[in-house]
Amino acid sequence: MFGESHPVYATSLNNFAGYYSNLGDYSKAAELGTQAKEVLKRVFGEFHPNYATSLSNLAGYYSVLGDYFKAVELGTQALEIRKRVLGESHPAYAISLNNLANDYFHLGDYTKAAELGTQAKEVLKRVLGESHPDYATSLSNLATYNYLNGNFREALKLWLISVQHTKDIVLLQFKSLTNRMRQSFWDKNRLYFTDLPSICVKAGGHDGVGEVYDNSALFTKGLLLNAETSLRDLILESGDS
Q1: Are the beta carbons of 78 and 56 closer than 8 angstroms?
Q2: Is residue 120 within 8 Å of residue 98, measured between CB atoms?
Q3: What is the DSSP string of 134-164?
Q4: What's the whole-model pTM score?
Q5: CB-CB contact of 199 with 147 (8 Å)
Q6: Cα 57 to Cα 64: distance, rounded to the nearest angstrom
Q7: Contacts 24+ apart (CB under 8 A), 163-166
Q8: Which residues contact residue 10 at a Cβ distance below 8 angstroms, ignoring those fewer than 6 apart?
């Protein structure tokens, strides 16, 4: 009815690519995503948000496949289009910056990753605010890039801020979660808090290491106690002993 040069056909291709991605078949996802990209380019032209999204999705598939050079190529195209069409104060532009920073990180170019990560952090701070989880994540990513690049003082400064933001977010979320959800949340996020002290020790000899280590350790114990209490409640509720 629509033909292969219709936006609906491209949408279907993108949807199927997403399904295959969820199934873990990223090669098939990349194949379908490439077809969708070509249809959207033909229908809308290169300077359209939908075309940029198809590029970004495709870059993500190649990134998971380990082809980071291809991911950077596609991600850079998406970034430039979003900058031109949506502007530098749009969340999608920040997403492109973050994704591209991650690809450069995997390529071992920590300087470029930090450059892009810094831009992403500033956009997210301006657009979403400092209380948004994405902003806390951008701080953590940027801290990692700086740490691997040998900029330990900058990394520690970012980790300090990131830990505080993350703690605030966690505490807010924990209040509204059921016992099972609290345990699940802890299981998914425990590594962030348990790994941080050891990272700080590796960066020893710089201001703030002790503060990060102690605060992170104390907060981790608090979360563990909360999660363990929740688990005991679950056992009592179920009648098991």
Answers
A1: yes
A2: yes
A3: HHHHHHHHHHHHHHHTT-HHHHHHHHHHHHH
A4: 0.76
A5: yes
A6: 11
A7: 163/196, 163/212, 163/215, 163/216, 163/219, 165/130, 165/131, 165/135, 165/136, 165/139, 166/136, 166/140, 166/192
A8: 36, 39, 40, 43, 50, 54
183, 230 in Cβ contact below 8 A? yes
Helix axes 91-106, 110-127, angle to 10 degrees: 160
Residues 6+ apart with CB under 8 A from 88: 123
User: In 3-state terms, what secondary structure has residue 201?
Assistant: helix
Query: Tens of pLDDT along the chain (241 residues)?
Result: 555 666 778 788 888 888 888 999 999 999 999 998 888 888 888 898 989 999 999 999 999 999 999 999 999 999 999 999 999 999 999 999 999 999 999 999 999 999 999 999 999 999 988 878 788 888 888 988 998 888 887 887 887 787 777 777 666 766 666 667 666 666 665 655 666 666 666 666 555 555 555 555 555 555 555 555 444 443 344 444 4
Work out the burial of residue 131: count CB atoms within 10 Å of its CB; fewer than 13 is exposed, 13-18 middle, 19 or more buried. exposed
